[in-house]
Write a structure and sequence with these properties.
By secondary structure, the chain is mainly alpha-helical. The protein contains nine helices and three strands, in the order E-E-E-H-H-H-H-H-H-H-H-H. It is 69% helix and 3% strand. Strands 1-2-3 form a three-stranded antiparallel β-sheet, with no helix packed on it.
Length: 261
């Protein structure tokens, strides 16, 4: 067996041919029992952060490509990009806050309704829960016994019913503020990338677009850290989408600029 960790969280890997999940601590405890074995998927920050960064990049790359394609001056491009950054970041932050808060309020309403049903007719709710488990292959006797026993603690019963019927954990709803701040900050960071060449003194459009393309690839590659996709595949996927958006707006800007001019 090969040691893959240090004290006090020393772990060992089973011999070749063992189950892939069979990582264990040095005392033989499965690694899956460790706190923090899984990433936090319910904190409410990852989705708005990724969405904000990608939206900021694509929005400002496309915006800069559009006005740049129309033949405006570098100063006008910078003003347009900064305005897009500020307006987009505020809009994203407010939108995320409102969206997550509304979702949480809907969850609270449905959970309150489920609590009333558990208080008024616990036997029927226990049968409903047992039937769900039976449909998944649990023996009927065991399913009814567990559902009935669980119903004696209304808080635990409520949690399980909410997970089974609503697909949510009422004690782990995302924070609207975390979502809003994550989205605001990441959108701003993403939108700033294609502006950097102009802010550093450059006066050519292609440098801004190149910076944006690099930003798209890096941001896409970083998201692979939270998924099972190869980093290069995730990076290329975001790059292609961003280039397509920039290409369309550049052509439209060029056509409109020629018509107006």
């Amino acid at each position: 067996m090969t040691d893959i960790g240090d004290e006090p969280t020393k772990r060992v890997r089973l011999a070749p041919g063992a189950e892939p999940h069979a990582l264990r601590d040095s005392d033989g405890t499965p690694a899956a029992h460790d706190e923090g074995h899984h990433a936090d998927v319910s904190g409410g920050w990852l989705r708005p952060a990724v969405f904000g960064a990608m939206d900021g990049l694509v929005t400002n790359i496309a915006l800069i490509a559009g006005v740049g394609g129309g033949g405006v001056s570098p100063r006008s491009i910078v003003l347009t990009g900064v305005a897009g950054l500020v307006a987009g970041a505020i809009s994203m932050g407010m939108g995320e806050y409102t969206s997550v808060r509304t979702q949480n309020e809907q969850v609270e309403h449905e959970v309150a309704k489920e609590r009333r049903e558990l208080e008024r007719n616990p036997a029927a709710e226990a049968r409903e829960l047992a039937e769900r488990w039976i449909s998944r292959g649990l023996p009927p006797e065991l399913a009814h016994e567990v559902a009935t026993t669980l119903g004696r603690d209304i808080d635990q019963a409520l949690r399980v019913h909410a997970q089974e019927e609503l697909g949510v954990d009422p004690h782990e709803t995302p924070s609207p503020w975390v979502a809003a701040i994550s989205s605001f900050v990441c959108f701003s960071a993403g939108a700033l990338v294609p502006l950097l060449p102009y802010l550093l003194g450059a006066h050519v459009l292609w440098l801004a677009l190149l910076a944006g393309a690099v930003g798209l690839f890096v941001a896409g590659a970083l998201t692979a850290r939270f998924t099972n996709r190869p980093w290069w595949s995730s990076g290329l996927n975001q790059l292609v989408l961003g280039v397509a958006a920039a290409g369309v707006t550049f052509v439209i800007g060029r056509l409109v600029g020629a018509t107006v001019g």
